[in-house]
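Predict fold of Quinone-dependent L-lactate dehydrogenase; 375 aa.
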Amino acid sequence: MADAADIADLRLLARRRAPRMVFDYVDGAAEGEQSMARAVAAFERVEFRPRVLRDVAEAPTAVEVLGRRIAMPVVLGPTGFTRMMHRAGEPAVARAAERAGVPYVLSTMGTTAASDVAAAAPGGWNWFQLYVVRDRARSLEMLARATDAGMDVLVVTVDVPTAGARLRDVRHGLTIPPALRWRSVLQAARHPAWWFDFLTSEPLRFATVDGAPGDLAGITNMMFDPSVTIADLEWIRSAWQGRLLVKGVQRVDDAKDLAAVGVDGLVVSNHGGRQLDRTPTPLELLPHVVDAVGDRTEVFLDGGVRSGADVAAAVALGARACFVGRAYLYGLMAGGEPGVRRVLDLLHAELARTLRLLGVDGVSGLGPDAVHLRR
Ligand code: FNR
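Predicted 3D structure, encoded as tokens:
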């Protein structure tokens, strides 16, 4: 694990360790995958503008998010079915986040109960992500369980009115949980360790929702409520005592409407390109959203972050912090909890180095002056 020089190395290791259909479930996106490719490529447009001869002996990476200090502007975002990537699953991710001093968001589609995540990382800052399901009482029950587990930040994801078309999954015939069928036998032979773990662990199931085994799109469309509107957010606002973030914002007008409802934060995100394809690129959209609502609500960036330098760029362009998805899942697939720890160590070291090389004496010194987006 220590040989992995960056997150791209961990991705390659993950590709070797996990069966192809599991790796592709993480690595893939919707339809032609343009949203994802552009989100990553946008970071290549970043041109840093370093100052010299600044005292950067101290370059603290800590920031304040929703009124609380965290070690660096990184949030481990919600990902469904995390125990499929590695049997250590959500508890391992939560422990790695706790150790690194950053928040972890448990997904509605998680494979570990909120109480078990809290028990695994009692000193961590654990958040809960909600998909509003058709049965509203069930949604409220999830909120109650999250509250009982000490989770005080709710992230409502609003970009899944229907399942995106993940063509890699369709081509693999991926089911949740994966079934050992003729298609997967060859993969099983190539990845015996993963299959051994999978077949000898507790059966994989969603912790908060019912879901008969099947394809993820079918499960999603059966459970999620496509009729949700901003009025429902007001309902959630009144039902939830803690902080409220909305994830999946891609337009300035929506950002303004949500800020008017009084959410505590917005996550500029296209779901890692896994929903609608050919959408705006989060990094490029970010400064516009920050201009429109940044004085009223905290704005987070989500999508395409693969290094600490990416985090620095996003913060310079106005993000309070970045959510990361695939980056930590690559680490998890590559090597369980130590793999996630490696990802977080890399992000921290890369961010600290970037700050110093930029000539800023900490995250708070990052501003639009530090970067330019090349055309
Ligand atoms: C996700 N994402 C996601 N988002 C969410 O709100 N609830 C969920 O259950 C999931 N599940 C999920 C599974 C997997 C395998 C991936 C890769 C992603 C989206 C995730 O939170 C985030 O928006 C993206 O991963 C961000 O893009 P990057 O960091 O992966 O480029």
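Residues 25-26, 39, 77-80, 107, 109, 129, 157, 247, 269, 271-272, 274, 302-305, 323-327, 329 surround FNR (CB under 6 Å).
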